[in-house]
UniProtKB/TrEMBL annotation:
Record keyword Repeat present: yes
Annotated keywords: Repeat
Pfam families given in the database record: Clp_N
InterPro entries from the UniProt entry: Clp_N_dom_sf, Clp_R_N
Record bears the keyword Repeat: yes
Domain Clp R: residue ranges: 88-228
Protein name per UniProt: Clp R domain-containing protein
Protein origin, superkingdom: Bacteria
SUPFAM superfamilies: Double Clp-N motif
Length: 228
């Protein structure tokens, strides 16, 4: 089951009957844990931790922590600044970029090969500020519950999932939603693409992972959109 995928990897890594299977599981698990460790370091620094605090938690020197993670984290932090969309006049806000960045974190933590609209939903809940997150809170959608139902949806997906490249690409469905978000911003007369435009876009597709996740929580996606 996908929801217990990491547990299954750990189980395979500790079984001694088949060295080939065990080694493959150890390598896959190590890659996944290395990826997660980088994410946790990034989130700690984003939350205001010092490099000394990070190093102490990792049990290494400050210099070692900085040497291993500084460039990676700097690149990721730079990703979430305001930036212009291609050659257009539309500016993608830092909050919108952060939403997508956090969505990639959520997909990676679940060992998915692509970022789906359900992961964007989780990213929106993590950003917290703004009309989008407020609309979700008004519908009694919280991050913990949303993560649970997303994991359930993945558990029912029998397609193969394994370690993939970083950053994870958006799924076809998610790419379509991103395109809709640009049109949504324009429709509202905005020259800045914000998280709430992403929320409307992922909820416009009745078959999207985000809509299915909300349905599991007993939430009408259209009602959330109306609230915006």
């Amino acid at each position: 089951m996908i929801a217990t995928d990491t547990h299954e990897l750990l189980d395979a890594a500790t079984r001694l009957e088949d060295p080939a299977e065990g080694l493959a599981a150890v390598c896959d698990l190590r890659r996944h844990l290395d990826q997660l460790q980088t994410v946790h370091v990034e989130n700690a620094l984003r939350a205001g931790w010092s490099w000394s605090q990070v190093a102490e938690t990792l049990g290494v020197s400050r210099q070692a922590a900085h040497r291993r993670y500084a460039r990676l984290v700097r690149e990721r932090l730079d990703e979430v600044r305001d930036s212009r969309q291609g050659n257009s006049n539309l500016v993608v806000t830092g909050a919108a970029r952060l939403t997508m960045h956090l969505a990639r974190q959520e997909a990676g933590a679940l060992r998915r090969q692509e970022v789906g609209t359900e992961h964007v939903l989780l990213g929106l809940l993590r950003v917290e500020a703004g009309p989008g997150a407020a609309a979700l809170r008004a519908a009694n959608v919280d991050l913990a519950s949303a993560r649970t139902v997303v994991a359930e949806l993945h558990a029912e997906d029998e397609s193969e999932h394994r370690f993939s490249r970083d950053p994870l690409p958006p799924s076809k469905q998610c790419r379509a939603a991103l395109e809709r978000s640009v049109h949504e911003a324009a429709r509202r007369g905005c020259d800045r693409l914000k998280p709430e435009h992403l929320l409307v876009a992922i909820l416009r597709d009745p078959g999207s992972g985000a809509v299915r996740a909300l349905a599991r929580l007993g939430v009408d996606a259209e009602a959330v959109v109306t609230g915006l």
